[in-house]
Amino acid sequence: MAAVLTRYRELPGYADTGYVITRLPGGEHVCKFQTAFNASGDFRFAFQSPHPFRPLRHLISSYVVGRQGGQAYLSRLPHSGGTSVSHWPDISMAIAAATGISCGAAHTIGGLLVPEIGGWAFSDLRRPRLRSPKLVDGVPCYRVTGLQGSVPVTVYVGIQDLLIRKFSDRKGKCEEVRLGIDIRTVHAPGLFRAPLAEA
Fold this sequence. Notes:
By secondary structure, the protein is mainly beta.
């Protein structure tokens, strides 16, 4: 677990795409996301969230939380239109504002890449147990079970690269999956700029 944390802290860059599926009595809620990070400390997490009311799930709101040059921000584009951008004194507060609406995904990898984000990290997993390996999107992964607070969870970590591929509760109600992980690309600074608010 310490090796996973060290691995993320030493990456020159990081990018992924993925999704969180939350299984509710009224059906599945799917939040899609994209992550980007440079070792300079610039960070961007963009995600889309459908309306929580099932008959209105076709209405999608978009968000971007990030930091460029030390300036943290959260951009909101609700399904009704009109982008708003709020600036925050630090990245941890911006991520905290986005964590709930992203079904927790804003924090999962962000907290590993950016030490200032703080909060729960994989290394804080209580009562960890190493289980038999499984494939996630064709990648052989260690399967680690334990407790996130009081919630039983399973974390799937790539055997070869020590990168988290999947995070789920053990009851199958919520799954966060990371695909297309890229740790070689150094992103252009412009990618991390806060979107412009609409007048």
